[in-house]
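Aim 2 progress update. The chain analyzed this quarter is reproduced below.
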Amino acid sequence: MPGDDAREAVRTVTGTFESGQSGDGLPYLPELPARGPGADMIGRTAGMLVELYARVEPSGWRLGDHPGRDTRRARSWLGEDLDALEEFTQGYEGLLKVQAVGPWTLAASLELRNGEAVLSDPGACRDLAVSLAEGLGAHLADVRRRVPGAGIVLQLDEPSLTAVLRGQVRSASGYRTHGAVDRQVVESTLRDVMEIQHAAGGGVVVHSCAADVPFALLRRAGADAVSFDAALLTERDDDVIGEAVESGTKLFAGVVPGTDGPLSDPAGSVGGVRTLWRRLGLRPELLARAVVLTPACGLAGASPAYARRALAHCVQAARSLADNPE
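Predicted structure tokens:
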């Protein structure tokens, strides 16, 4: 979300989705990267790690030997956000989403002490995934304690996943790329991290706003839903999307732009989703149960006014889809 006021961001989100108990919305814990390092998605998740610590360098976030001010700042801002969430969800019963960076985007973004990405070292990747899983377990338990009536949905942000699978993550020098990671290793690591949430009975969404989202891999890894930018879909994605839906995987379709611009009428925003459904030959009555409408990606680059309109537009578009799936 845009801005740097945690209470205002949570108020906006919970106010927009105040009817979430009836299934119209999915409130969430906002991230406010405009506050600076530690509030960004990488720094925020790095602050959740257990027995691994990161600090800000000119090149980005780098693992270090002990917690410093950057780790403390990330944890302080997360605590502030959780306090605001607890305040505005008193008595809430319904689904509530929290998000963190997934293990492979984190491995592509965090640096080892030598300046290369964690991705360059398979052993370091394994250690990072274990630390992340443990940290997420503690974070999810804290959210459940603060909002006891909520059913927690975990979103793992994996915008770099396709690049990891294709060997397209650049080295520190920029003159070469790190090798592609074996798909079975990627899948099993994701499965292990998701198990922290699944063991507690919660669902997991994996989000990527990149092209060519690996739907089949994510489904096999145990993702309950896949979140994507609907504008980047092509007909070659039809088969894997159809298989995912038929296996019970939900689709979080990003149909509303994440930055300021004109919004179409709600019915127009879901035209592409209806077209996809017809191409797949799926029953119209499944549409409202299988699809959640979202912004295409985060709203941090939008104005506060547009962010509010975009969230409200998603709710209105979802109602249009439910009322007229064909």
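The chain is about 45% helix and 15% strand. The beta strands are 53-57, 60-64, 94-101, 150-157, 203-208, 225-229, 250-256, 291-295. These observations will guide the mutagenesis experiments scheduled for the next reporting period.
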